[in-house]
Amino acid sequence: LFFIEAGLDPSNQASSSDIAVALAIVRKCGFLPIAVKVAGRLVRYGLPDGESLDLKDVSKHVVMASSPERTEYLENYAIENKDPHSIQLFHILDRTFGMITGESSNVSSLFFASFAVVFSREEDLRPWVPYESAKILWEQLKISKYVNDLGQQAGSMSTNELLEDLRKIGVVDVDMRANFGKIEDRKYRVNHDLMWQYGRQCASLLNQH
């Protein structure tokens, strides 16, 4: 996807070192398709002011924080982002949850933030979590003030519906190998370290209100 957007043929126009640099950029983008596309287009078209970019220069435009949209990220991560052309990954993740329509978007982001924080361990930030554990987490959230603040319909979603929404937008992985993929025997984990950081940040913002 990155090379397609960059207008390059990796088999003819990219050296092994170029491919390694591109892979590092894709990883830094958290494997988010939207972010990868933007990064590729920076290579093809350069910056809006006409300045061209070498492949090795693209990575510096991929940043975690978003200055104008979510200044609280800058405060918590101590990142000063003055680059107007940066690929602001947290903002892209905000928009990713916007793909879930209606009230479900807020519920899903709340559940994901809780999932990311509650099940992480020092030795493993993104462990596989049994479906039943995720279900217990949702049952506790449903009686919390956070869900009550979202309205009467917020608690009507099932655990499976929430996890499926998160799987569809690509922020969690699912392991369906056990017992022919039966729902109760599935396991889930946060897809990428970037998603875990995003979930942790959302959780910290909730605690400020």
Write up this protein.
The chain has 209 residues and is mostly helical. Helices cover 51% and strands 7% of the residues. The protein contains eleven helices and five strands, in the order H-H-H-H-E-H-E-H-H-E-H-H-H-E-E-H. It has helices spanning 2-6, 16-28, 33-45, 55-58, 71-77, 89-97, 104-118, 131-142, 145-148, 159-168, 193-207, and strands spanning 62-63, 87-88, 129-130, 172-175, 187-190. A three-stranded antiparallel beta sheet has the order 3-5-4. It has a two-stranded parallel ribbon with strand order 1-2. The longest helix has 15 residues, at 104-118. The chain is elongated and about 55 Å long.
Shape: elongated
* Mean pLDDT figure: 79
Oligomer description = single chain
- Rg is 19 Å
What is the SS-derived class? mainly alpha
Sheet with most strands: 3 strands, antiparallel
Model regions low in confidence, pLDDT < 50 over at least 5 residues: 65-82
Features:
two-stranded parallel sheet, 5 strands, 7% strand
What's the quick description here?
The chain is mainly alpha-helical. It has 11 helices and 5 strands, in the order H-H-H-H-E-H-E-H-H-E-H-H-H-E-E-H.
Chain-wise SSE layout:
Layout: H1 2-6, H2 16-28, H3 33-45, H4 55-58, E1 62-63, H5 71-77, E2 87-88, H6 89-97, H7 104-118, E3 129-130, H8 131-142, H9 145-148, H10 159-168, E4 172-175, E5 187-190, H11 193-207
Parallel strand pairs: 1-2
Antiparallel strand pairs: 3-5, 4-5
Helix pairs in contact: 7-8, 7-10, 7-11
